[in-house]
Design goal:
Elements lengths: L2 E6 L6 E2 L4 E3 L4 H10 L5 E6 L6 H11 L2 E7 L17 H21 L3 E4 L5 E2 L7 H16 L6 E5 L8 E2 L4 H11 L4 E6 H6 L4 H10 L3 E6 L17 H13 L4 E5 L8 H22 L1 H10 L2 H10 L3
Helix pairs in contact: 1-2, 3-4, 4-5, 7-8, 8-9
């Protein structure tokens, strides 16, 4: 596999919840300086529009950092105008603005020399029964994604799903819905991001979910993190669901998948740089363990379907 590892610049700054601040705020220059200290990272994922209050200044800062951009992350959820949705807002003018923001993100991708933008449309969904028109919502999202993605056919749009947050139920909540949306849009440059943590929360098996996307030739991007399958805690990869991580690496190797891994990890405690370096190292070590166990041995375990025999070998491989 030809894999490159990217840090999400937005995760390198302030970390807080409703009760406590864990990491202090940093400006873009400070976050990029931290990213450069993560020696095993190959690039960054930068967020638009939140990082681009001064468009030309941000472009200059990112280019002068010397860091390769893996993708431009389109964030159409935080601003007040998106409160009732971005791609599914009942107001056609707001939907038009969401499409325009996608076009700008695609233009920035060209500016930074990458071929991809990512988008997790978390504000598109519902909280209550009889709150939205599901038929119209789906149609509006399909129409907006198609219209925006046509802007630059050479730039891929990778849609990231999540069960909930900010809505109690998101339109793109799992891999199946996401692939159906991609099929309905019908454009070759629209595909899916498989976020390991999001797959876990929706009770998917991550390796199975990414395999479905790969079978459709729509696996564009992979986000790594971990959780206990109850909430998107963005923990370091493999710290909870260790064997799921190994299985993900096995299937990516089996599929001969090439591309960027991005780390959607929140470092609440300890050193930010160390936490990010450990996250990348965990995925690299998982890949090395696939080598140690052996692709042929793993394929034999699957073919035989005997968990007792399989885990006897798997546990011994850790010695």
């Amino acid at each position: 596999m030809a894999i490159k590892h990217a840090l999400m610049v937005g995760m390198m700054g302030r970390v807080a919840d409703r009760f406590h601040e864990y990491q202090s705020a940093r400006d873009l220059i400070g976050r990029l300086e931290l990213a450069r200290k993560v020696t095993n990272a190959d690039g960054i994922e930068i967020t638009y529009p939140s990082e681009f209050k001064d468009m030309q200044e941000t472009i200059r800062i990112v280019k002068e950092s010397g860091l390769t951009v893996s993708a431009v992350n389109l964030n159409v959820k935080q601003e007040k105008r998106w409160q009732r949705g971005s791609f599914t807002n009942p107001d056609p003018e707001i939907r038009r603005q969401a499409v325009q923001e996608m076009r700008v993100a695609m233009d920035l991708a060209v500016e930074f020399g990458t071929d991809m933008i990512s988008c997790c449309p978390l504000i598109d969904g519902h909280n209550y029964s009889f709150e939205v028109d599901y038929l119209k919502q789906w149609g509006w999202m399909e129409e907006c994604i198609r219209e925006g993605a046509k802007h630059r056919p050479e730039i891929r749009l990778s849609l990231e799903y999540k069960l909930n947050e900010s809505r109690n139920s998101n339109v793109l909540s799992d891999m199946g819905r996401s692939l159906y949306m991609v099929e309905r849009v019908g454009l070759p440059n629209v595909g899916v991001t498989m976020d390991v943590g999001h797959a876990l929360v929706v009770k998917e098996t991550p390796a199975e979910a990414l395999s479905l996307a790969a079978l459709a030739n729509k696996l564009f991007y992979v986000h790594f993190n971990d959780n206990a399958r109850e909430w998107d805690w963005d923990m370091m990869p493999g710290t909870v669901n260790f064997w799921d991580l190994i299985e993900v690496m096995f299937y990516l190797r089996r599929l001969k998948w090439d591309g960027w891994f991005s780390y959607d990890v929140i470092v609440r405690d300890g050193d930010m740089v160390e936490g990010m370096q450990t996250s990348i190292e965990a995925v690299k070590i998982a890949d090395q363990l696939v080598d140690k166990i052996g692709m042929a041995n793993l394929e034999t375990m699957i073919r035989e379907g005997d968990p007792g025999r399989a885990y006897s070998q798997l546990f011994r491989a850790l010695l």
